Amino acid sequence: MITALRHFLVDSWLGRVIAFVVFASFIVLGGTFFGLGGGMAGLGGDTVAQVGSHKITPVEFQKAVQRQVAYLMQQNGGAVELLRTPEGRQEIGHAALRNLILVHEGAQAGKRNGLNPGDETIRGVIFAMPDFRDPSGRFSPQKMDSLLHVNNLSHQDLIQETRRMLYGRATMLAFGQTVQPPAQEVDWMVNHVGHGQVVDMVRLPFSLGEVSTQPTDEQLKRYYQNHLWQFRQPEYRHARIVVMTAGSVAKTLQISDADLQASYKMKMEDSVEAARYNSPELRSIEVLAVTDEATAGQLAAAWQGGQTWKALQKQYPRAIPATLDDARQTDLPDPALAKVAFATPEGHVSPPVHTAAGWSVVHVLSIKPAKHASFESLKDSIREDLANERAAAMLKDRQRAFEEAVAGSVTLDKVPADIGAFPLEGSLDAHGNLPGGEPAPLPGDVALRQAIISQVFSQKKDEPPHVVTEPDGSSFAVLVDDVTPGRQDSYETARQAVVDAWMADARKHATEQRATALYQQAKKEGLRQALAGQKEESLLRKDEHFSRLQQRHDVPALILRAALQQKVGETAMLQEGDGYWLVNVIGTYEESPTLMQAIRQRLTVQMTGAYRNDLQETLGMSYTRAAPPRHFNAALFNDVNERVLSMISGRLGQQ
Question: Entry's Gene3D superfamilies (predicted)?
């Protein structure tokens, strides 16, 4: 259901009408949650907030939260990381409430200015929606009813959302359409984004440190006394645990072949969903671009004759190189270049092709054929998705059976598996680790695992088990049947561990001293020269390119920031993980003219939107001053928001 809702809300024309307020909230309110005054005076327990005379009900707020999640899923390719943290869930709820406040503010402004779309106008807009037309292009009431039913929407919901869209168009979205960003600002942004840094860097792990002497017994005893917590055995508790989550309930459900076929058909008919499973032909290519046809011809002949790409770059230093890995034909910025790149056989070099930027020659490195996902290849994943969707709705019904089973089983050995509860047992410490040090294989997400650990270490030994239910609907019961108290290891018992810890600290200190000496030298003459002839020279990584366009994942984020933010000639010494890094910026580089032009176009569009949003935000805030939202019911807001997001988390399998 959530998959269908997501694509309905973001991929169809009707869905865009309903999702209008989600996008508008970011335009007008700028991501800030302004205060709602007045407490809860005059409101019952069925009103979240009030705008003018309109009271936002829990049902209305629930639908807004669902729309907000659908929008976030579309923006992030199906994942909603905000669902995983309490702060993120609050952010989703606040954005959803902003949406509602915004749309009702727009309606109030429209009414104040005499705007009131009549029934005929709304009917005309709905009848014109492509989603509601049959194959002949005529409006189909049956298709409309079916689509609304699938997405839990009524005719009144559709009318209200269409009316809101019309109010929004009239009162906000047309404002600032002709604004353009200053050319100087665009130039600065293009220069900032289109230039990268060339870096020399070296990582010196702590293990490289050389320790010439062994510690004395006195040194080891002093180290032991100063680090007692490192040599203590934690308390372990042996527990029997029974857990029931949406994921475990899903494993008990049977999905018919008819339902699987229907879901597969829906996925393949949805262009965005189908794109997740089907892929066009992909090609990895090398390109050299020059300004004139004669040079391109010489370059192509040399390349076809066996010259390598790197050798040709040295031979033709004015040629602009570019590579693309697993690119679609639409990924190539020039139509002529794309056409020849996808017509050239694998391992071959194309003849020169005339492009908008000059002349280019293409070498096709590899080809991945187009793929189409068959029903059989998706059958298992579809079954899992459908089972998870249905399990989320069934979880509450199964909870009563789970509670009855736990109440009738003092030792938790009589809880039936067919309700979706599964048992496990073992010893663990307060950090959730097994006696060997590895994490205990507890089920669920971080919140559920932490709740289980907390219950194990707060519940008394042999205390009768009881069901604990989490906000997302997951439940568990615990029986603690043995406790092994924690104890401090004696120096004699822990002596070898003390030696190992002392040596590790000594090696780290030696590495720090060595890194500091190299850093001081690198500040004077550069890292490359500082390492010349030194034993660490083999670890040096030269001429590494760092760009703001492509985030590298082979270095830590701290090192990435240093590489991009330092000035040319500067060297930084940083500790990250189990080593020290020396990072020396030795120069800069500029992206290719073709890419720079694409960057300029993209930034111009983004900055135009940002300026337009600023103007529209000013207008939107003026509406809130004319009719301030009031009477915010925080308790009801939190209750509805948590229930809706817990249900969605279950459907998404975030257990």
Answer: 3.10.50.40
